[in-house]
Amino acid sequence: MSSIVRLDSLALKAEIDLQKNLFLLQILDQTQLPHREVWLTMTSLPQMIEAIQSLRVRGAPLIGVTAALFLAGQALSGESPASLQHITQQLYHARPTAVNLMNCLTAMRSQIDNDASAQTLVDTAITLFKDDVRLCRDIAEHGSQLISNGDHILTHCNTGGLATAGVGTALGILQRAHTEGKKIHVYIDETRPLLQGARLTAWELQKWGIDCTLITDSTAAQLMRQGKIHKAFVGSDRIARNGDFANKIGTYSVAVNCHHHRIPFYVAAPSTTVDRSCLSGDHIPIEQRIAAEVRGAKGYFGDVTWAPDSVAVYNPAFDVTPAELTTAWILETGIYRHKDIEQGVFS
Amino acid sequence: MSSIVRLDSLALKAEIDLQKNLFLLQILDQTQLPHREVWLTMTSLPQMIEAIQSLRVRGAPLIGVTAALFLAGQALSGESPASLQHITQQLYHARPTAVNLMNCLTAMRSQIDNDASAQTLVDTAITLFKDDVRLCRDIAEHGSQLISNGDHILTHCNTGGLATAGVGTALGILQRAHTEGKKIHVYIDETRPLLQGARLTAWELQKWGIDCTLITDSTAAQLMRQGKIHKAFVGSDRIARNGDFANKIGTYSVAVNCHHHRIPFYVAAPSTTVDRSCLSGDHIPIEQRIAAEVRGAKGYFGDVTWAPDSVAVYNPAFDVTPAELTTAWILETGIYRHKDIEQGVFS
Fold first, then answer.
1. Strand (E) positions, chain B?
2. For residue B338, what are the contacts with CB-CB under 8 A and spacing of at least 6?
3. pTM (whole model) above 0.90
4. Interface confidence: ipTM more than 0.90
5. B262-281 residues touching A, CB cutoff 8 A
6. Residue range B97-138, pLDDT digits in tens
7. Which candidate, B2, B6, B1, places its Cα nearest to that of B26?
8. Does B45 touch chain A (CB under 8 A)?
9. Using CA atoms, how far apart are residues B257 and B260, in angstroms rounded to an integer?
10. Nearest CB to B225: which of A249, A252, A312?
């Protein structure tokens, strides 16, 4: 019997041989998409943290699973429990908004406290990976029921196989509907400033053969006015008990516009995104990022600055959408409506 | 007595010597802002049309005045009435949405029909320039009454001295309030895809010493939710009889968000922007631009493509904001409210 475990997703690969103490963790460098598909091997903590902070690996579920696997690899390479706790702490603070990162690391930390053996930590990390794949599958199964043949759907940022270990959350739903044979057309918000829609969602939808059109973020409203958008699906980095949720900056504007045009607005996320300790969106910490991201654009495609260097910038990575603008919450356990939230399904 | 006339604005210069048959028309190449201030001398029709279509000269009022002056220069250089009519026709179709361009050219065409002498056409073009300066001044005077000390104001695109022969429309109002001593803070939408906010409005507000913060277009909604935006001022390229108006893509999303957050939303434009032959916003032609503008960004700052080359794009240059989302229309003749529109002030 082989002791080698291979994990393989769109943006994450791991190869683990417990007998030989081998651990190979690779991430698809998303900053180079759609131009190049380059896999990076994660070998050191500074490299792992840099990859998370510079969004080489991104998407709330995916960074959680990746961090857990990285930690398991460190255990396999002989790091002491104290050192593993230190590494956990460092990873914990890499990005502040995604609760999945904290959840995965908390699960790993509990194991370190109980039994810091490499075997146990590797098993825990593999379970987190497989759980995420299953969560995505179940979210997609529920969510695709909300999609009709012929739907034109708006999405924001990237919530697909590049954001999770599985098929994705909001985008996973669209892929599921597509594979079920429903004809859909997806409008992709480019998602300034980091252009995850233009770079990643466009790449992913084309890979899947789903009809799509790229637009600037502020074009969506006019398409809604023209009746060309029937539904919107977005993901989330943290959902509060009252149903408020944080997601990529610009999501709130989509929600307001959907509300104005009476277009259903759905959020899809694994239940690990629900932060039961968080009473409302007001308590979700919002990551502030550097001005240069807004003064221009930078990536594998180049590095340009179009605004005056000296102009002040406000650049929050996320915004908060209040529950009242959300039509339904799609989790792996089902589709939840306002009455469910009021009955405490997230409490 | 000198017969030399000099016209001088932030983005347009003309020097006219009727006795010597000299005509020098220069535009500030706005595609190179904020990095370089380069003045281009307009000598040929293809060059003038290219400058309009590539937005070296832009802003509905400014392109109208510039086209009229160019035509006057052609008259001075001895073009026949038939040739002048042909040139007018070519300029007329350079960009389809801005009614000011058509208005200015119609005024010139009437003169050509009556009296195609260089003297007459130069006088007409100079009058159009001076009229625009006066219109801007009067718009600013009315509009600044709507601004209070301490206001935080959102604006979209560029509607200042780079968009008119005068101080601007929406931005002219902000400059006026500033020079009157009111303390204001301006949030500038970057205005994808062509980044007029990030490049031009940021440059212009800094030149005037007005406090400002640059944001991505989809960040405005969250600022409104936080109570950090008190008013929004935008310009217009064409106003229909019923008060609907076309403006830079993204304006409609600003209007919807202002409506949702009960924030006053003002449009400022000279009355030459009102198209009395246009019943409603549905009848305003909307210019569609090339996909490359959305797949990346291009300018003096560089040329980058971040989206897959093959992805479909929808790239309208303008959108239409319905009258019902507009708090008031600020023209050089005063501030108009819904009851004024209903009473036919634009009919």
1. 4-8, 12-17, 22-28, 39-41, 152-155, 185-189, 212-215, 231-234, 238-240, 245-248, 265-268, 274-275, 296-299, 302-305, 312-313, 318-321, 328-331, 334-336
2. B243, B323, B324
3. yes
4. yes
5. none
6. 878 899 999 999 999 999 889 999 999 999 999 999 999 999
7. B6
8. no
9. 5
10. A252
